[in-house]
Give the backbone structure.
Amino acid sequence: MIIITAGLLDLYSEIVKNKLFYFNIIHKKSIEFYHYFKSKNKIINQNLSYLDDKKSKFIYLQKLNNIISGNFVDTNIYSSCQYLNNDLIQNGKKIKKIIYAGAFDGYNMDRFLKLNKKIIINAFEPSSKMYRFLKNKYKKNNDIKIFNSLLWSQNDLDIRFNDDSKNEGLSASVINSASLGSTYKVKTFKIDNLIDKFRADMIALDVEGSELKALDGAKKYINKHKPILGICIYHNAYDYAQIIKTLYLNYKQYYKFYIRQHSVISYIETVLYCIPKK
């Protein structure tokens, strides 16, 4: 047994370079997920019952098994095209307006623009460094608004944010430790603030474990406008259990629920899609 500490990209590069993908890789998430889910079969079965296709049920169980058993890479559950132009949202051009949080370096926003040059985006990024980068990157596009805010259940709180600058922001989070990089306070913002100002066709959230707080601040918005939801559920075991349940119980009358996995790495890029019923 070899025990190492490494950032995700460093770890992945070593796994590929040394062909270690033939071995089980026990990540810290493996331990977290095992301890959280070992006595929660009821929650697992409930979440499976909330999902609307066999593919979603397979992904949910297989990803959970992959994480706990240390199966680092799995191409069998992978689907391309996160958020738009996948098998659930087949025509991304129909998405005219989007609320997107966790904008980071604009990678997904560039994809949105390739699909629809006229798409209107309200993007949220709490990292001051990445906010400045995005403002400069899209300064000539008047259809893109960048907010240096943290989506939350309340407005104008000062929440401590760690931008994980040491790992290029890959593990940024709402924590108090400064061990991973610059830590500073960021103002919070409720999506409900936009209810009469910006009617989005889709809300996409990748906010490093703050998804439930952001959704709590969007209840009125979702009930009124019923946009497509693309919510990341992979950041921790609690989210993997509770986000599906929360959205199903709150909005089952409006939506059907699906899961897609958008990375071959088992630990990341798992999205719950809530598609409005016709």
